[in-house]
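tmp note - TatD family hydrolase
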Amino acid sequence: MIDSHCHLDLSPLCDDVDSVLAQAAAVGVTQLLVPAVSRLHWAGLQQLSARSQVRVAIGLHPCFSHQADADIAAMTQRLESVHPFIAIGECGLDKVEGKLPLEQQLWLCQQQLLLAVKHHLPVILHVRNAHNELLQLLRAIPLPAGGVVHGFSGSFELAMQYVRHNLLIGVGGVITYERAQKTRKTVSLLPLDKIIFETDSPDMPLSGNQGKANHPHHLLNIVTAVASIRPESEQRLIHAHQKNCNSLFQLNS
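out:
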């Protein structure tokens, strides 16, 4: 099973990568997809990708500071050479904690979507309080290789708008909170072939672990929480998740 979104290059996970990978493997999480957050992290991700358990993505996260023009130029160059990246991300829009004005965030996201189209790579999208703007971008730039809206916590109707743009819905720790009724209802209704699971480690702690670093081995707790609100067994959910991830990220290629 793969943790489809885990920041293994951020503290405290990066402080003891071997231990993180061992704990994950002990519960059957044998692969981790690590998205980038800034240009400064790309080299480290390339090193991590030498490990058989780690796959990596290249991106510019809206909540990190960027030199937009220079970073996009660097990403363009990196993607035109031999590289290990299987997706574009984490990219997107954030009106809450974004480090750039929205206009610049829109340009930065647009350029990354265009690179995803050019190189036929899926995208890993982050969005907070900017769904209308992101959906407008997606209408202008169809994504043949698809992607995922990670850490989704919106309504079923909103989720299906993203599904219609060839995107999967990333389900994380929010689903473990009983108070997250809107998200739990959404996930209970979504088609099984449109869902993948993630931890967003070290962020997005599960219920009962507030204030603590999240870890990839908690992925099975997320599956358990989803199984409690859907008709499928945990094993069926794991099988579907892996099938969806394999298809989206071409993990068997």
